[in-house]
Amino acid sequence: MKRKSMKKVLAAILAASMLVMAGCGSGTGQTGTAEKAESDTTDTAASDSTGGYSEDEIITLKLFCDEVWWPYTDWSGRIPDIVTEKFGIKFEVTVPTDVNQLNMMIASGDLGDLVCSGKFTRLCDNNICYTLDELAEKYQTSLDIHSVMRFVNTADDGKLYTLMAGYSPDSVMEEWEKSVYEQAGVAIRTDIYEELGSPELKNLDDFTNLLQQVKDNYPDIVPFAYNYSFTNDYIKIMTGATVNEDGFVDVDGKAVPFIMDPNLADYYKIMNDWYRKGFMTDENFAWTGTEDEELMLSGKLFAHSCNANTADMDNAKLEQAGLDFRCKTIIDMTTTQPGAHWISTNVGWRGLFIPKSCSDPERVLAFVKWIWSEEGQRLLLWGEEGKDWEWSEDKSYPIMNYNFESPDSAAGMKYWGWMYHDGKNNVLPGVGNEGDTYKARVALKEICEVNPVLGMLRMGADSNEQVIMDNLKDLYMNESTNIITAPSEEECSKRYQNMLQTARDMGADQLTEWANQKYVEKKSEYDKIKNNKE
Protein backbone atom coordinates (compact mmCIF):
# COMPACT_ATOMS: atom_id res chain seq x y z
CA MET A 1 0.00 0.00 0.00
CA LYS A 2 1.83 3.59 -0.19
CA ARG A 3 1.07 6.75 1.46
CA LYS A 4 -0.81 9.12 -0.79
CA SER A 5 -1.19 12.53 0.71
CA MET A 6 -4.20 12.98 2.97
CA LYS A 7 -6.47 11.16 0.54
CA LYS A 8 -4.52 7.98 0.54
CA VAL A 9 -4.41 8.06 4.20
CA LEU A 10 -8.11 8.26 4.55
CA ALA A 11 -8.50 5.03 2.71
CA ALA A 12 -5.84 2.97 4.05
CA ILE A 13 -8.31 3.36 6.65
CA LEU A 14 -11.60 1.58 6.49
CA ALA A 15 -10.56 0.43 3.05
CA ALA A 16 -8.17 -1.90 4.53
CA SER A 17 -7.45 -3.90 7.61
CA MET A 18 -3.99 -3.92 6.55
CA LEU A 19 -0.93 -6.09 6.17
CA VAL A 20 2.96 -6.12 4.96
CA MET A 21 6.58 -6.39 6.48
CA ALA A 22 9.87 -4.99 7.83
CA GLY A 23 12.92 -5.62 10.03
CA CYS A 24 13.00 -3.14 12.86
CA GLY A 25 12.88 -3.99 16.57
CA SER A 26 15.84 -6.31 16.95
CA GLY A 27 17.11 -5.29 13.54
CA THR A 28 18.68 -8.69 12.86
CA GLY A 29 18.26 -11.15 10.05
CA GLN A 30 16.72 -14.62 10.36
CA THR A 31 18.21 -18.07 10.10
CA GLY A 32 14.77 -19.52 9.49
CA THR A 33 11.19 -18.46 10.15
CA ALA A 34 10.56 -20.89 13.00
CA GLU A 35 13.85 -20.03 14.73
CA LYS A 36 13.14 -16.33 14.34
CA ALA A 37 9.65 -16.66 15.78
CA GLU A 38 11.09 -18.36 18.88
CA SER A 39 13.82 -15.79 19.45
CA ASP A 40 12.12 -12.51 18.59
CA THR A 41 10.75 -11.83 22.05
CA THR A 42 14.24 -11.80 23.55
CA ASP A 43 15.50 -8.78 21.62
CA THR A 44 16.93 -5.83 23.48
CA ALA A 45 14.17 -3.43 22.46
CA ALA A 46 11.61 -5.58 24.22
CA SER A 47 13.64 -6.37 27.33
CA ASP A 48 14.61 -2.81 28.30
CA SER A 49 11.35 -2.37 30.26
CA THR A 50 10.43 -4.97 32.84
CA GLY A 51 7.13 -3.44 33.88
CA GLY A 52 5.48 -3.94 37.24
CA TYR A 53 4.52 -0.30 37.88
CA SER A 54 2.29 0.46 40.84
CA GLU A 55 -0.81 2.57 40.32
CA ASP A 56 0.80 5.72 41.71
CA GLU A 57 3.78 5.30 39.37
CA ILE A 58 1.63 5.27 36.22
CA ILE A 59 1.70 8.53 34.27
CA THR A 60 -0.64 9.82 31.57
CA LEU A 61 1.00 11.11 28.40
CA LYS A 62 -0.47 12.93 25.42
CA LEU A 63 -0.57 10.96 22.15
CA PHE A 64 -1.53 12.68 18.90
CA CYS A 65 -2.58 10.26 16.10
CA ASP A 66 -2.41 12.39 12.98
CA GLU A 67 -5.10 10.52 11.03
CA VAL A 68 -8.65 11.89 10.86
CA TRP A 69 -9.98 8.33 10.48
CA TRP A 70 -8.17 6.87 13.50
CA PRO A 71 -10.71 4.44 15.06
CA TYR A 72 -9.42 4.35 18.66
CA THR A 73 -9.67 7.51 20.72
CA ASP A 74 -9.51 5.98 24.18
CA TRP A 75 -6.50 4.15 25.62
CA SER A 76 -8.42 1.32 27.25
CA GLY A 77 -9.01 -2.40 26.92
CA ARG A 78 -7.11 -5.60 27.57
CA ILE A 79 -4.19 -4.87 25.22
CA PRO A 80 -3.57 -1.24 26.27
CA ASP A 81 -3.77 -2.39 29.89
CA ILE A 82 -0.87 -4.79 29.29
CA VAL A 83 1.18 -1.95 27.83
CA THR A 84 0.33 0.29 30.78
CA GLU A 85 1.46 -2.38 33.22
CA LYS A 86 4.70 -2.88 31.30
CA PHE A 87 5.69 0.76 30.86
CA GLY A 88 3.74 2.62 33.52
CA ILE A 89 2.09 4.88 30.96
CA LYS A 90 -1.40 5.62 29.77
CA PHE A 91 -2.24 7.85 26.84
CA GLU A 92 -4.63 10.71 26.46
CA VAL A 93 -5.38 10.29 22.75
CA THR A 94 -6.14 13.12 20.35
CA VAL A 95 -7.29 12.61 16.76
CA PRO A 96 -7.25 15.63 14.43
CA THR A 97 -10.41 17.31 13.26
CA ASP A 98 -8.72 18.31 10.00
CA VAL A 99 -5.44 17.83 8.15
CA ASN A 100 -3.99 21.14 9.37
CA GLN A 101 -4.11 20.44 13.10
CA LEU A 102 -0.51 19.19 13.29
CA ASN A 103 0.78 22.42 11.73
CA MET A 104 -1.13 24.40 14.33
CA MET A 105 0.40 22.29 17.10
CA ILE A 106 3.89 22.83 15.68
CA ALA A 107 3.28 26.57 15.60
CA SER A 108 2.17 26.48 19.24
CA GLY A 109 5.26 24.54 20.29
CA ASP A 110 3.17 21.93 22.10
CA LEU A 111 2.94 18.55 20.39
CA GLY A 112 2.33 16.60 23.55
CA ASP A 113 4.48 13.58 24.38
CA LEU A 114 4.25 11.37 21.29
CA VAL A 115 3.15 12.03 17.72
CA CYS A 116 2.03 9.37 15.25
CA SER A 117 2.16 10.97 11.80
CA GLY A 118 3.15 10.44 8.20
CA LYS A 119 4.50 13.97 7.84
CA PHE A 120 8.13 12.88 7.75
CA THR A 121 9.80 16.01 6.41
CA ARG A 122 7.75 18.29 8.65
CA LEU A 123 8.65 16.45 11.85
CA CYS A 124 12.26 15.52 11.01
CA ASP A 125 13.44 18.80 12.46
CA ASN A 126 15.69 18.96 15.52
CA ASN A 127 13.90 22.12 16.62
CA ILE A 128 10.65 20.16 16.80
CA CYS A 129 11.54 16.56 17.66
CA TYR A 130 14.34 14.64 19.32
CA THR A 131 16.66 12.50 17.26
CA LEU A 132 16.71 8.87 18.30
CA ASP A 133 20.46 8.69 18.61
CA GLU A 134 20.67 11.67 20.97
CA LEU A 135 18.04 10.12 23.24
CA ALA A 136 19.70 6.70 23.10
CA GLU A 137 23.01 8.27 24.12
CA LYS A 138 21.44 10.35 26.87
CA TYR A 139 19.62 7.39 28.40
CA GLN A 140 22.41 4.89 27.68
CA THR A 141 20.38 2.46 25.62
CA SER A 142 21.01 0.85 22.24
CA LEU A 143 18.70 1.15 19.24
CA ASP A 144 19.81 -1.95 17.31
CA ILE A 145 18.34 -0.78 14.01
CA HIS A 146 18.79 -2.72 10.78
CA SER A 147 21.27 -0.91 8.51
CA VAL A 148 18.77 -0.65 5.65
CA MET A 149 16.08 0.65 8.00
CA ARG A 150 18.47 3.28 9.27
CA PHE A 151 19.39 4.27 5.71
CA VAL A 152 15.86 4.69 4.36
CA ASN A 153 14.66 6.54 7.47
CA THR A 154 17.56 8.99 7.75
CA ALA A 155 16.42 12.57 7.19
CA ASP A 156 18.19 14.99 4.88
CA ASP A 157 20.02 16.48 7.85
CA GLY A 158 21.69 13.07 8.36
CA LYS A 159 19.78 12.35 11.56
CA LEU A 160 17.30 9.65 12.55
CA TYR A 161 14.00 10.75 14.06
CA THR A 162 11.75 7.73 13.56
CA LEU A 163 11.18 4.44 11.78
CA MET A 164 8.29 4.65 9.35
CA ALA A 165 5.66 1.91 9.51
CA GLY A 166 5.02 -0.47 6.64
CA TYR A 167 8.50 -1.09 5.29
CA SER A 168 10.98 -3.94 5.68
CA PRO A 169 14.32 -4.54 3.97
CA ASP A 170 14.36 -7.08 1.14
CA SER A 171 16.29 -9.56 3.28
CA VAL A 172 13.51 -9.64 5.86
CA MET A 173 10.78 -10.01 3.26
CA GLU A 174 12.65 -12.89 1.68
CA GLU A 175 13.07 -14.70 4.99
CA TRP A 176 9.38 -14.37 5.81
CA GLU A 177 8.35 -15.69 2.42
CA LYS A 178 4.63 -15.63 3.18
CA SER A 179 4.73 -11.88 3.68
CA VAL A 180 3.06 -9.79 0.99
CA TYR A 181 2.45 -6.13 0.23
CA GLU A 182 -0.63 -4.10 0.92
CA GLN A 183 -2.07 -2.80 -2.32
CA ALA A 184 -5.22 -2.12 -4.27
CA GLY A 185 -7.94 -4.41 -5.56
CA VAL A 186 -11.39 -4.58 -7.13
CA ALA A 187 -14.35 -6.23 -5.40
CA ILE A 188 -17.38 -7.45 -7.40
CA ARG A 189 -20.78 -8.77 -6.39
CA THR A 190 -20.83 -12.55 -6.65
CA ASP A 191 -24.60 -12.86 -7.17
CA ILE A 192 -24.64 -10.72 -10.29
CA TYR A 193 -21.38 -12.22 -11.53
CA GLU A 194 -22.79 -15.75 -11.24
CA GLU A 195 -26.10 -14.76 -12.83
CA LEU A 196 -24.10 -13.54 -15.82
CA GLY A 197 -22.41 -16.95 -16.10
CA SER A 198 -19.20 -16.23 -14.14
CA PRO A 199 -17.30 -15.14 -17.27
CA GLU A 200 -13.52 -15.53 -17.37
CA LEU A 201 -11.62 -12.43 -16.22
CA LYS A 202 -8.11 -12.66 -17.62
CA ASN A 203 -7.59 -9.10 -18.81
CA LEU A 204 -9.12 -5.64 -18.92
CA ASP A 205 -11.02 -6.49 -22.13
CA ASP A 206 -12.79 -9.30 -20.25
CA PHE A 207 -13.59 -6.95 -17.39
CA THR A 208 -14.87 -4.29 -19.77
CA ASN A 209 -17.18 -6.85 -21.36
CA LEU A 210 -18.45 -7.84 -17.90
CA LEU A 211 -19.21 -4.23 -17.00
CA GLN A 212 -21.11 -3.87 -20.27
CA GLN A 213 -23.21 -6.93 -19.40
CA VAL A 214 -24.00 -5.45 -16.01
CA LYS A 215 -25.09 -2.18 -17.61
CA ASP A 216 -27.26 -4.00 -20.17
CA ASN A 217 -28.93 -6.39 -17.72
CA TYR A 218 -29.13 -4.37 -14.50
CA PRO A 219 -30.12 -0.78 -15.37
CA ASP A 220 -30.50 0.20 -11.71
CA ILE A 221 -26.97 -0.93 -10.82
CA VAL A 222 -23.85 1.24 -11.26
CA PRO A 223 -21.32 -1.05 -12.98
CA PHE A 224 -18.13 0.48 -11.59
CA ALA A 225 -16.88 3.01 -9.03
CA TYR A 226 -13.56 3.81 -7.45
CA ASN A 227 -12.75 4.81 -3.91
CA TYR A 228 -11.82 8.41 -3.18
CA SER A 229 -8.72 7.56 -1.19
CA PHE A 230 -7.30 4.77 -3.33
CA THR A 231 -8.15 6.60 -6.57
CA ASN A 232 -8.46 3.52 -8.73
CA ASP A 233 -5.00 2.14 -8.11
CA TYR A 234 -5.83 -1.39 -9.24
CA ILE A 235 -6.78 -0.28 -12.75
CA LYS A 236 -3.65 1.86 -12.87
CA ILE A 237 -1.59 -1.20 -11.96
CA MET A 238 -3.28 -3.18 -14.72
CA THR A 239 -2.04 -0.58 -17.22
CA GLY A 240 1.42 -0.39 -15.66
CA ALA A 241 0.81 3.20 -14.52
CA THR A 242 2.06 4.61 -11.25
CA VAL A 243 -0.28 4.53 -8.27
CA ASN A 244 1.48 7.53 -6.75
CA GLU A 245 -0.11 10.95 -6.54
CA ASP A 246 3.09 12.60 -5.53
CA GLY A 247 6.76 11.72 -5.54
CA PHE A 248 8.68 10.17 -8.39
CA VAL A 249 8.71 7.21 -10.74
CA ASP A 250 11.56 5.58 -12.63
CA VAL A 251 11.30 6.08 -16.39
CA ASP A 252 14.24 4.57 -18.26
CA GLY A 253 16.46 4.86 -15.20
CA LYS A 254 15.56 8.47 -14.52
CA ALA A 255 13.48 9.73 -11.60
CA VAL A 256 10.63 11.86 -12.95
CA PRO A 257 7.58 13.39 -11.22
CA PHE A 258 4.70 10.91 -10.99
CA ILE A 259 2.52 12.94 -13.34
CA MET A 260 4.99 12.39 -16.19
CA ASP A 261 4.62 8.60 -16.14
CA PRO A 262 3.90 7.71 -19.80
CA ASN A 263 1.75 4.72 -18.80
CA LEU A 264 -0.92 7.08 -17.49
CA ALA A 265 -1.96 7.58 -21.13
CA ASP A 266 -3.32 4.02 -21.32
CA TYR A 267 -5.00 4.35 -17.94
CA TYR A 268 -6.85 7.50 -18.97
CA LYS A 269 -7.86 5.92 -22.30
CA ILE A 270 -9.51 2.96 -20.54
CA MET A 271 -11.23 5.08 -17.93
CA ASN A 272 -12.54 7.49 -20.54
CA ASP A 273 -13.92 4.55 -22.51
CA TRP A 274 -15.74 3.26 -19.42
CA TYR A 275 -17.09 6.69 -18.60
CA ARG A 276 -18.43 7.25 -22.12
CA LYS A 277 -20.07 3.81 -22.03
CA GLY A 278 -21.92 4.79 -18.86
CA PHE A 279 -20.14 2.42 -16.48
CA MET A 280 -19.50 5.24 -13.99
CA THR A 281 -21.49 8.13 -12.55
CA ASP A 282 -20.48 11.78 -12.46
CA GLU A 283 -20.95 11.73 -8.69
CA ASN A 284 -17.92 9.43 -8.37
CA PHE A 285 -15.62 12.33 -9.18
CA ALA A 286 -17.03 14.47 -6.36
CA TRP A 287 -16.74 11.87 -3.62
CA THR A 288 -14.60 12.69 -0.60
CA GLY A 289 -14.81 9.54 1.52
CA THR A 290 -16.33 6.06 1.48
CA GLU A 291 -19.25 6.71 -0.84
CA ASP A 292 -18.33 3.70 -3.00
CA GLU A 293 -18.68 1.43 0.03
CA GLU A 294 -22.00 3.01 0.92
CA LEU A 295 -23.24 2.48 -2.64
CA MET A 296 -22.26 -1.20 -2.44
CA LEU A 297 -24.03 -1.62 0.90
CA SER A 298 -27.15 -0.04 -0.61
CA GLY A 299 -27.21 -2.75 -3.29
CA LYS A 300 -26.70 -0.22 -6.10
CA LEU A 301 -23.12 -1.04 -7.15
CA PHE A 302 -21.55 -4.02 -8.93
CA ALA A 303 -17.80 -3.37 -8.66
CA HIS A 304 -15.60 -0.95 -6.78
CA SER A 305 -11.88 -0.35 -6.94
CA CYS A 306 -10.32 0.10 -3.53
CA ASN A 307 -7.98 -2.14 -1.52
CA ALA A 308 -7.08 -5.82 -1.93
CA ASN A 309 -8.99 -6.54 1.29
CA THR A 310 -12.11 -4.68 0.19
CA ALA A 311 -14.18 -7.81 -0.50
CA ASP A 312 -13.45 -9.18 2.97
CA MET A 313 -14.30 -5.81 4.49
CA ASP A 314 -17.49 -5.56 2.41
CA ASN A 315 -18.63 -9.03 3.38
CA ALA A 316 -18.27 -8.38 7.10
CA LYS A 317 -20.47 -5.28 6.73
CA LEU A 318 -22.93 -6.97 4.38
CA GLU A 319 -23.39 -9.78 6.88
CA GLN A 320 -23.81 -7.35 9.75
CA ALA A 321 -26.43 -5.46 7.73
CA GLY A 322 -28.31 -8.69 7.00
CA LEU A 323 -27.96 -8.34 3.22
CA ASP A 324 -28.18 -11.45 1.08
CA PHE A 325 -25.32 -10.87 -1.37
CA ARG A 326 -21.55 -11.02 -0.99
CA CYS A 327 -18.44 -9.79 -2.80
CA LYS A 328 -15.27 -11.37 -4.15
CA THR A 329 -11.95 -9.90 -5.23
CA ILE A 330 -10.70 -10.13 -8.80
CA ILE A 331 -7.48 -12.12 -8.59
CA ASP A 332 -6.65 -13.95 -11.84
CA MET A 333 -6.48 -10.79 -13.96
CA THR A 334 -3.66 -9.43 -11.80
CA THR A 335 -1.04 -11.75 -13.26
CA THR A 336 -2.56 -12.39 -16.71
CA GLN A 337 -3.24 -8.82 -17.87
CA PRO A 338 -0.47 -7.87 -20.38
CA GLY A 339 1.68 -5.05 -19.02
CA ALA A 340 0.32 -5.23 -15.47
CA HIS A 341 3.08 -3.99 -13.19
CA TRP A 342 3.69 -1.73 -10.24
CA ILE A 343 6.72 -0.29 -8.51
CA SER A 344 6.63 -0.10 -4.74
CA THR A 345 8.42 3.08 -3.71
CA ASN A 346 7.27 2.56 -0.15
CA VAL A 347 9.62 3.48 2.69
CA GLY A 348 6.81 3.60 5.23
CA TRP A 349 3.77 5.78 5.70
CA ARG A 350 3.67 6.87 9.34
CA GLY A 351 6.13 7.14 12.17
CA LEU A 352 6.25 7.73 15.93
CA PHE A 353 8.05 10.98 16.72
CA ILE A 354 9.14 12.15 20.16
CA PRO A 355 8.61 15.93 20.26
CA LYS A 356 10.66 18.38 22.26
CA SER A 357 7.51 19.04 24.33
CA CYS A 358 7.61 15.44 25.62
CA SER A 359 7.46 15.34 29.43
CA ASP A 360 9.22 11.97 29.82
CA PRO A 361 11.43 11.20 26.79
CA GLU A 362 13.13 8.27 28.54
CA ARG A 363 9.95 6.32 29.13
CA VAL A 364 8.54 7.21 25.71
CA LEU A 365 11.75 6.06 24.01
CA ALA A 366 11.50 2.71 25.82
CA PHE A 367 7.89 2.40 24.68
CA VAL A 368 8.72 3.26 21.07
CA LYS A 369 11.62 0.80 20.98
CA TRP A 370 9.29 -1.90 22.24
CA ILE A 371 6.72 -1.12 19.55
CA TRP A 372 9.44 -1.66 16.95
CA SER A 373 10.22 -5.08 18.40
CA GLU A 374 8.53 -8.27 17.29
CA GLU A 375 6.99 -8.64 20.75
CA GLY A 376 5.51 -5.16 20.66
CA GLN A 377 4.17 -5.39 17.12
CA ARG A 378 2.57 -8.77 17.68
CA LEU A 379 0.85 -7.80 20.92
CA LEU A 380 -0.56 -4.54 19.56
CA LEU A 381 -1.50 -5.99 16.17
CA TRP A 382 -2.48 -9.58 16.93
CA GLY A 383 -3.27 -9.63 20.63
CA GLU A 384 -2.09 -12.18 23.17
CA GLU A 385 -0.50 -15.41 22.03
CA GLY A 386 -2.52 -18.36 23.26
CA LYS A 387 -5.64 -16.28 23.67
CA ASP A 388 -6.03 -14.33 20.44
CA TRP A 389 -3.74 -16.29 18.16
CA GLU A 390 -1.43 -19.30 17.84
CA TRP A 391 1.54 -19.97 15.59
CA SER A 392 1.09 -22.13 12.51
CA GLU A 393 2.91 -25.47 12.67
CA ASP A 394 6.01 -24.07 10.96
CA LYS A 395 5.71 -20.74 12.82
CA SER A 396 5.60 -18.79 9.58
CA TYR A 397 2.30 -17.03 10.30
CA PRO A 398 -0.24 -16.62 13.10
CA ILE A 399 -3.54 -18.46 13.17
CA MET A 400 -6.03 -15.95 14.44
CA ASN A 401 -8.80 -16.83 16.89
CA TYR A 402 -10.88 -13.87 15.71
CA ASN A 403 -11.63 -12.03 12.47
CA PHE A 404 -8.57 -9.85 11.93
CA GLU A 405 -10.58 -7.75 9.49
CA SER A 406 -13.02 -6.91 12.29
CA PRO A 407 -11.04 -6.87 15.56
CA ASP A 408 -12.44 -6.47 19.04
CA SER A 409 -12.28 -2.73 19.60
CA ALA A 410 -13.16 -3.14 23.29
CA ALA A 411 -10.01 -5.24 23.76
CA GLY A 412 -7.99 -2.66 21.81
CA MET A 413 -6.40 -5.00 19.27
CA LYS A 414 -4.93 -4.29 15.84
CA TYR A 415 -5.24 -0.54 15.39
CA TRP A 416 -2.75 0.50 18.08
CA GLY A 417 -0.39 -1.76 16.15
CA TRP A 418 -0.94 0.41 13.11
CA MET A 419 1.08 3.12 14.82
CA TYR A 420 4.04 0.97 13.83
CA HIS A 421 4.31 -2.31 11.99
CA ASP A 422 7.12 -3.60 9.88
CA GLY A 423 5.19 -4.56 6.79
CA LYS A 424 5.07 -8.26 7.53
CA ASN A 425 3.33 -8.53 10.89
CA ASN A 426 0.35 -6.57 9.57
CA VAL A 427 -0.15 -8.94 6.62
CA LEU A 428 0.76 -12.35 8.04
CA PRO A 429 -2.64 -12.80 9.77
CA GLY A 430 -4.14 -13.00 6.29
CA VAL A 431 -2.24 -16.18 5.41
CA GLY A 432 -4.63 -18.39 7.33
CA ASN A 433 -7.69 -16.44 6.19
CA GLU A 434 -9.62 -18.26 3.48
CA GLY A 435 -10.91 -14.95 2.11
CA ASP A 436 -9.63 -13.20 -1.01
CA THR A 437 -7.32 -10.70 0.66
CA TYR A 438 -4.20 -12.81 0.96
CA LYS A 439 -4.59 -14.41 -2.47
CA ALA A 440 -5.00 -10.99 -4.05
CA ARG A 441 -1.87 -9.70 -2.34
CA VAL A 442 0.16 -12.74 -3.37
CA ALA A 443 -0.82 -12.04 -6.99
CA LEU A 444 0.12 -8.37 -6.62
CA LYS A 445 3.49 -9.31 -5.16
CA GLU A 446 4.22 -11.35 -8.30
CA ILE A 447 4.05 -8.24 -10.49
CA CYS A 448 5.77 -5.89 -8.04
CA GLU A 449 9.17 -4.25 -8.34
CA VAL A 450 10.58 -2.75 -5.13
CA ASN A 451 12.48 0.53 -5.33
CA PRO A 452 12.56 2.33 -1.96
CA VAL A 453 15.11 4.87 -3.22
CA LEU A 454 12.34 6.63 -5.13
CA GLY A 455 10.48 7.00 -1.84
CA MET A 456 13.56 8.57 -0.29
CA LEU A 457 13.44 11.55 -2.65
CA ARG A 458 11.77 13.64 0.01
CA MET A 459 11.42 17.38 -0.39
CA GLY A 460 11.79 19.89 2.40
CA ALA A 461 8.40 20.87 3.81
CA ASP A 462 8.70 24.49 2.68
CA SER A 463 11.13 24.01 -0.21
CA ASN A 464 10.67 25.22 -3.77
CA GLU A 465 10.64 21.57 -4.88
CA GLN A 466 7.76 20.79 -2.53
CA VAL A 467 5.83 23.78 -3.85
CA ILE A 468 6.23 22.45 -7.38
CA MET A 469 5.19 18.95 -6.32
CA ASP A 470 2.13 20.29 -4.49
CA ASN A 471 1.14 22.19 -7.64
CA LEU A 472 1.57 19.03 -9.71
CA LYS A 473 -0.59 17.08 -7.28
CA ASP A 474 -3.34 19.69 -7.55
CA LEU A 475 -3.03 19.69 -11.33
CA TYR A 476 -3.27 15.91 -11.43
CA MET A 477 -6.35 15.75 -9.22
CA ASN A 478 -8.15 18.48 -11.13
CA GLU A 479 -7.25 17.35 -14.62
CA SER A 480 -7.74 13.61 -14.09
CA THR A 481 -11.48 14.12 -13.86
CA ASN A 482 -11.40 16.43 -16.87
CA ILE A 483 -9.46 13.84 -18.91
CA ILE A 484 -11.58 10.85 -17.91
CA THR A 485 -14.85 12.67 -18.66
CA ALA A 486 -13.79 13.88 -22.12
CA PRO A 487 -16.56 13.45 -24.74
CA SER A 488 -14.32 11.46 -27.13
CA GLU A 489 -11.11 9.46 -27.22
CA GLU A 490 -9.46 12.21 -29.26
CA GLU A 491 -10.42 14.87 -26.74
CA CYS A 492 -9.24 12.62 -23.90
CA SER A 493 -5.79 12.38 -25.50
CA LYS A 494 -5.71 16.12 -26.15
CA ARG A 495 -6.55 16.95 -22.55
CA TYR A 496 -3.90 14.53 -21.31
CA GLN A 497 -1.23 16.19 -23.46
CA ASN A 498 -2.35 19.60 -22.25
CA MET A 499 -1.90 18.40 -18.66
CA LEU A 500 1.65 17.29 -19.42
CA GLN A 501 2.49 20.65 -20.95
CA THR A 502 1.04 22.48 -17.95
CA ALA A 503 3.10 20.24 -15.68
CA ARG A 504 6.26 21.25 -17.54
CA ASP A 505 5.25 24.90 -17.29
CA MET A 506 4.88 24.41 -13.52
CA GLY A 507 8.43 23.09 -13.18
CA ALA A 508 8.21 19.33 -13.76
CA ASP A 509 11.48 19.33 -15.70
CA GLN A 510 13.16 21.34 -12.96
CA LEU A 511 11.92 18.80 -10.44
CA THR A 512 13.30 15.96 -12.56
CA GLU A 513 16.73 17.59 -12.56
CA TRP A 514 16.63 18.02 -8.77
CA ALA A 515 15.47 14.46 -8.17
CA ASN A 516 18.09 12.80 -10.33
CA GLN A 517 20.97 14.43 -8.50
CA LYS A 518 19.75 12.70 -5.35
CA TYR A 519 18.50 9.54 -7.06
CA VAL A 520 21.86 8.56 -8.53
CA GLU A 521 23.68 9.13 -5.24
CA LYS A 522 21.14 7.39 -3.01
CA LYS A 523 20.65 4.49 -5.42
CA SER A 524 24.39 3.83 -5.36
CA GLU A 525 24.44 3.86 -1.55
CA TYR A 526 21.35 1.67 -1.29
CA ASP A 527 22.67 -0.92 -3.74
CA LYS A 528 25.71 -1.42 -1.51
CA ILE A 529 23.64 -2.37 1.55
CA LYS A 530 20.28 -3.61 0.23
CA ASN A 531 21.11 -7.28 0.86
CA ASN A 532 22.37 -6.71 4.41
CA LYS A 533 20.95 -9.11 6.97
CA GLU A 534 21.27 -6.66 9.86
Topology overview:
Elements: H1 5-14, H2 33-39, H3 44-47, E1 59-65, H4 78-87, E2 89-94, H5 101-108, E3 114-117, H6 120-123, H7 132-138, H8 147-153, H9 170-175, E4 184-189, H10 190-195, H11 204-217, E5 222-226, H12 233-238, E6 248-251, E7 254-257, H13 264-276, H14 291-297, E8 301-307, H15 310-320, E9 327-329, H16 332-336, E10 342-344, E11 351-353, H17 361-372, H18 374-382, E12 389-391, E13 398-400, H19 436-446, E14 448-450, H20 452-455, H21 464-484, H22 489-506, H23 508-529
Parallel strand pairs: 1-2, 1-3, 5-8, 10-14
Antiparallel strand pairs: 3-11, 4-8, 4-9, 6-7, 12-13
Helix pairs in contact: 13-22, 21-22, 21-23
Write a structural description.
- This protein is an alpha/beta fold.
- The protein folds into 2 domains: 55-168 and 347-428, D-Maltodextrin-Binding Protein, domain 2; 184-345 and 459-530, D-Maltodextrin-Binding Protein, domain 2, CATH 3.40.190.
- Helices cover 42% and strands 11% of the residues.
- The chain has helices at 5-14, 33-39, 44-47, 78-87, 101-108, 120-123, 132-138, 147-153, 170-175, 190-195, 204-217, 233-238, 264-276, 291-297, 310-320, 332-336, 361-372, 374-382, 436-446, 452-455, 464-484, 489-506, 508-529, and strands at residues 59-65, 89-94, 114-117, 184-189, 222-226, 248-251, 254-257, 301-307, 327-329, 342-344, 351-353, 389-391, 398-400, 448-450.
- The chain has a 4-stranded mixed sheet with strand order 2-1-3-11. The protein has a 4-stranded mixed sheet with strand order 5-8-4-9.
- α21 runs antiparallel to α22 (489-506).
- InterPro entries: Bact_solute-bd_prot1.
